[in-house]
Amino acid sequence: MSNPSILILPGDGIGPEVMAQVTRIIDWFGEKRDLKFDVETDLVGGAAYDKHGVPLSDETMARAMEVDAVLLGAVGGPKYDDLDFSVKPERGLLRLRKEMDLFSNLRPAQCFDALADFSSLKKDIVSGLDIMIVRELTSGVYFGEPRGIHKEGNERVGINTQRYTESEIARVARSAFELARKRGNKVCSMEKANVMESGILWRDVVTEIHETEYPDVELSHMYADNGAMQLVRAPKQFDVIVTDNLFGDVLSDCAAMLTGSLGMLPSASLGLPNADGRPKALYEPVHGSAPDITGQGKANPIACILSFAMALRYSFDQGDEATRLEKAVEKVLADGARTADLMGPEDGTPISTTQMGDVILEALDASL
Ligand code: NAD
Predict the structure, then answer these.
(1) Which of 59, 142, 156, 355 could be stapled to 351 by a disulfide with Cβ–Cβ 3.0 to 4.6 Å?
(2) pLDDT at residue number 347
(3) CB of 291 shorter than 6 A to ligand 1
(4) 258, 286, 305: which is the final residue of a domain?
């Protein structure tokens, strides 16, 4: 049997810096846990544009379709801001999501105790928080037609269309129910069925899938605006939240801030299972390329490292090893390891990106 395969796309800005720490961790699992991966590295975003004139080459796209998991760092930066929309770095990421048909975006919002003071909310509201937002990623208003800006009389009109088919709703609902079964067994579905027909259909289909396939999971429904309020009022009431592309974009960023820093947030985007049962999968930190700190050794690699932990759990069926890695991160934070984004101005000297990698590797060693 060959090893499971990973395509690493470090991308731009701090992407390569944080991904370098993930590579060390992948090597550690190979050496110390006999969990070996066939790893290859390629270009995406501005880095791919510089070499190929496109933000993702056809060859790289083809490899992404073949491997068991793709790990991506970040794309974009000021150097590319004036490029034509069709070749902007972000288009590389959108192409991956679209062609791999990654319809289910998993964004955990987990509050590590050691960082509870960092949240914008009171410690008792976020301490111990562990929720998962499942966002539909390939349909809805970001993709619906008609779209565009056109002239009506003397003024311009901007149009986007929210469109969902039953099957698009059903597959992301299944993804949320499956996850809930492995967690707290609760799903809250969010839409705006009070004012949007697509919301009425969303609620109908989620209810139908629940009744016919997942009656053992607790299901509730909430209007997305109330969901936003509840997320900052009492976030621990939730286990898994499932919602559409637009509301998911907003709600997952809102939930993200409950946990403190952008440098801590992983994500997974999953598609339908391949013949071997593994879903097509892309793992990436939530943050961008952070041009303001690129090349300074200041980037926090934890979001990218926790994205690899999600790959261990969701692509490679290595839940115990994923937990080992997450516990190692938890331990170094409890011991006081902090990159600059996790410190206030009075809190002493931060450690560098590489030093954070060092201490996490030490904690992994100590876990054996
Ligand atoms: P950003 O996430 O890059 O940075 C926002 C702030 O958070 C910055 O102050 C940055 O220094 C800080 N930050 C982000 N990640 C950090 C980390 N790991 N450690 C420490 N601090 C961190 O968002 P932005 O500034 O709005 O965007 C910068 C570029 O990234 C843009 O070109 C944007 O289009 C792109 N972007 C890419 C992605 C992606 O690749 N998925 C996501 C968002 C933004």
Answers:
(1) 355
(2) 81
(3) yes
(4) 258
Number of independent structural domains in the chain = 2
d(CA 50, CA 145): 32
CATH of the domain at 264: 3.40.718.10
Question: Among all residues, which ones are annotated catalytic?
Answer: 142, 192, 225, 249, 253
- Binding site listing for NAD(+): 77-90, 288-300
Instruction: Evaluate whether residue 198 is within a structural domain.
Output: yes
Domain boundaries, position 75: 1-112+260-368
**With a 6 A CB cut-off, is 266 part of the ligand 1 pocket?**
no
Domain boundary among 205, 240, 258: 258
The band of 121, judged by pLDDT with boundaries at 50, 70 and 90, is confident
Looking at the structure, do residues 285 and 363 belong to the same domain, yes or no? yes
Whether residue 127 is contained in a domain is answered as: no
**What is the per-residue pLDDT for 259?**
76
Kindly tell me if the per-residue pLDDT of 128 is higher than 90: no
pLDDT at residue number 182: 87
128 part of a folded domain: no
